[in-house]
Amino acid sequence: KQEVTQIPAALSVPEGENLVLNCSFTDSAIYNLQWFRQDPGKGLTSLLLIQSSQREQTSGRLNASLDKSSGRSTLYIAASQPGDSATYLCAFFGNEKLTFGTGTRLTIIP
Amino acid sequence: SQTIHQWPATLVQPVGSPLSLECTVEGTSNPNLYWYRQAAGRGLQLLFYSVGIGQISSEVPQNLSASRPQDRQFILSSKKLLLSDSGFYLCACTPISLNEKLFFGSGTQLSVL
Prior knowledge:
The complex is a heterodimer of chains A (110) and B (113).
Chain A: E1 4-7, E2 10-14, E3 19-25, E4 32-38, E5 44-51, E6 56-59, E7 62-67, E8 72-77, E9 86-94, E10 97-100, E11 104-109
Parallel strand pairs in A: 2-11
Antiparallel strand pairs in A: 1-3, 3-8, 4-5, 4-9, 6-7, 7-8, 9-10, 9-11
Chain B: E1 3-7, E2 10-13, E3 19-26, E4 32-38, E5 44-52, E6 55-58, E7 64-70, E8 73-78, E9 87-94, E10 103-104, E11 108-112
Parallel strand pairs in B: 2-11
Antiparallel strand pairs in B: 1-3, 3-8, 4-5, 4-9, 5-6, 7-8, 9-10, 9-11
C-alpha cells in the first residue's frame, strides 16, 4: 500500500526566499506524480505533473523533481510571494487512483 | 479543458438524514471520476472511483455509496448520515489518458450536527 509523507506540516518563510517542500513515498511503482495547491475552503489546483520516466518539471517559479530510487519528490519555489501562501499536496498515481500526502501549509510573511 | 461542477458548496445536515452530492463534468468524455473526503487537519481520503458508467470501486467501507448514472455524472449518497461524515467532499476527474492532470471541483463542506 502506497504511503505518502510530507514534512514539515507547516512552514513560514519571509517573502522573497527560495524554499523547498518535501514529499516521500514508499512504493516506487508509480505512474506519475502531481503537486497540488489548495487555498482554504477551496478545491485543489494541479501545479505540476511529472511522468514516472521524467525527473523534473518546471512552470514559472515552480520546479518539481522526482527521484524514484530514493522515494522522494521536491517542490522548489523561487522568490516566494505572499500569494504563494496555501497548502501544498503531493500525490502519486498508481492503480487508477491518486494517493495524497497530508500536505504542507505554507505561509509567506510579507 | 475539463470543468467540474459540484454542488452545493456548503451543507448542514442533522444526524440520520440522507445525503446526495452531485458532480458533473464538462469538456471530456469517458473520464475517470473520484470522490475524496478531507477531514479537518487530515489529508485527502479516496472514497470511491469510477472508470465508466455503472462501475464503482469503493476504497473505504462506510455508510456512503456512489453511483454513476451517466458518463459525466457522479453522485455521492448516504441513507443516514453520521457525525463522522462531516468534512470537505471533493469530486475529481482525469481524462481517459493517464498522462493528464487530475482536476478537482470546488468542493462541498458538509457539517453533520
